[in-house]
Write a structure and sequence with these properties.
Elements (H helix, E strand, L loop, with lengths): L3 H7 L1 H16 L4 H14 L3 E2 L13 E6 L3 E6 L15 E7 L4 E11 L2 E9 L12 E11 L4 E8 L18 H4 L11 E4 L8 H12 L9 E12 L4 E3 L5 E4 L2 H20 L5 E7 L16 H9 L3 H9 L2 E5 L2 E2 L22 E3 L10 H13 L5 E3 L11 H9 L3 E5 L1 E3 L6 E4 L2 H14 L8
Parallel strand pairs: 1-2, 4-13, 4-14, 14-18, 15-19, 16-17
Antiparallel strand pairs: 2-3, 3-13, 5-6, 5-10, 6-9, 7-8, 7-10, 11-12, 12-20, 16-18, 19-20
Length: about 450
């Protein structure tokens, strides 16, 4: 097995290029809407054609396509040779990589204004956010806004991103809470409404009016129709501190939303690598869906029908589709818990994922992860092919276990699935930490999966 030091030395330049693009991608993607838009843009640059779910599809062999739903989920695929007919090429199946576009955050409520001495916004916690790190950060706002053009009386939607710091959640001083370092709890209703400005100022105090002004300032084409009215929105706060490669030896990636934009980026880079290198005879697919952090039960989540209906349209014949799915594989990519050196007792002593020691197979006997011995062995073989070390994670038997889109997709589609991810510290914090080598290595293994010739499986 290649040593860690030699692995870093051999892959130094491509790893640095990968990480630089990763940091830029995450910084441009403060919300699932922005992440989906950025993925779509990169796909179009690589020659992918957008499909509309409301249109009739005509797919060509070797064609590159993508579709979105709710502006926050995206599926991209390379149509393999003859996979839309009952032919022998169906025996090789479909190679899939799945991830999710959402991250825990603070969402702005529909009637958010809290005005007394300061203008604050009421927020709702989205997902299992670690709340304490949200205090004393420079926050901005981004998301999707639906507005009416009063001249035409038409409804339209746009993405919005204030970009600069516009809010903060100050901590209560230690002098007023002497037990803060021993037993601090956060009440999500009363303790975390961000402060935007002084209420006594001349600033407008209607949030929708503020959003309308921001729309006009961000989108030049709206200046010809300045009479707009914001009807609704899906907006969240985010930390404006830029993602960075940190550590004395640049060993780490520190950023918001590593869970799970890192996995989305790994899968995207693998798909683009396949496009650049060759035309594969098999179908390769990237599936990035929203709402995983709240259970995936939505029209655009993994528990919804988006992937199922896409496969039905790619393979209209039921017999052919069943044959293809039985020979397919889904890599469900979602970050794994690295062993925190200060809290090592939280892990099973025989399963201790370390940052920069390779991706992590996630295994759970109670099917919180979808990995089987067969799918794990296939992934292990691809890791060996790429000289990438592989680790395993099993939660302590006396602790609960999180889950991913893996078991959901396996249940919905029936596709053999494995769960894997990059080891991470501070998962669900406003700023997470991952190894600077692991993302690039995971993407390489995904590329090996996409390029795998012949059927996937063990006879």
């Amino acid at each position: 097995m290649t040593s860690q030091a030699s692995r870093k030395e051999v892959n130094q330049q491509p790893t640095q290029e990968f990480n630089q693009q990763l940091l830029e991608f995450i910084e441009r993607s403060p919300t699932p809407f922005h992440a989906t838009q950025n993925i779509a843009s990169m796909l179009e640059d690589a020659g992918f054609e957008q499909l509309a779910e409301g249109d009739e599809w005509s797919l060509n062999e070797g064609g590159r396509y993508y579709l979105t739903r709710n502006d926050s989920s995206i599926i991209a695929f390379i149509q393999g040779v003859s996979t839309n007919t009952a032919s022998s090429s169906l025996d090789v199946g479909i190679r899939m990589v799945g991830a999710h576009t959402d991250s825990p955050t603070l969402m702005v409520k529909p009637q958010p204004e809290k005005i007394k001495d300061y203008f604050q916004l009421g927020v709702e916690v989205y997902g299992g956010a670690l709340l304490n790190p949200w205090f004393d950060r420079d926050l901005s706002i981004a998301g999707r806004v639906v507005y009416r053009d009063k001249q035409s009386n038409s409804l339209n939607k746009r993405l919005i991103n204030f970009q600069r710091p516009v809010a903060t959640i100050p901590s209560l001083a230690i002098h007023l809470d002497r037990e803060a370092n021993k037993n601090r709890t956060v009440n999500p209703q009363t303790d975390i409404p961000p402060i935007l400005f002084e209420a006594g100022s001349d600033e407008c105090k209607d949030f929708r009016t503020l959003l309308a002004r921001q729309l006009l300032s961000e989108h030049d084409d709206l200046k010809d129709t300045p009479d707009i009215e914001v009807f609704d929105y899906e907006l969240c706060f985010y930390d404006t501190q830029a993602p960075a490669q940190i550590g004395l030896n640049n060993d780490f990636i520190a950023s918001a939303r590593l869970d799970n934009l890192l996995s989305c980026f790994c899968g995207l880079q693998a798909l683009l690598k396949v496009c650049a290198d060759s035309q594969t005879p098999q179908t390769c697919m990237l599936v990035c869906t929203d709402h995983e952090e709240v259970g995936s039960a939505s029209a655009c989540g993994a528990q919804g029908p988006m992937l199922q209906t896409t496969l039905e349209r790619m393979l209209p014949d039921g017999q052919a589709r069943a044959r293809a799915i039985s020979r397919s594989l889904m890599i469900s990519a979602d970050n794994a818990h690295g062993v925190h050196p200060n809290y090592a007792s939280k892990h099973d002593g025989n399963h201790v994922p370390v940052l920069n020691r390779g991706p992590v197979l996630k295994i759970n006997a109670n099917q919180r992860y979808a990995t089987t011995s067969v799918t794990a062995a296939l992934f292990r073989q691809w890791c060996e092919l790429q000289a990438v070390p592989l680790q395993s994670f099993v939660t302590r038997t006396d602790l609960g276990c999180g889950s991913t889109i893996g078991p959901i997709t396996a249940t919905q589609i029936g596709v053999p699935t494995l769960d894997v991810g990059v080891p991470t510290f501070a998962m669900h914090s406003i700023r997470e930490l991952a190894g600077s080598q692991d993302g690039y290595d995971l993407s390489r293994v995904m590329t090996a999966c996409f390029n795998h010739q012949g059927p996937i499986g063990i006879a």
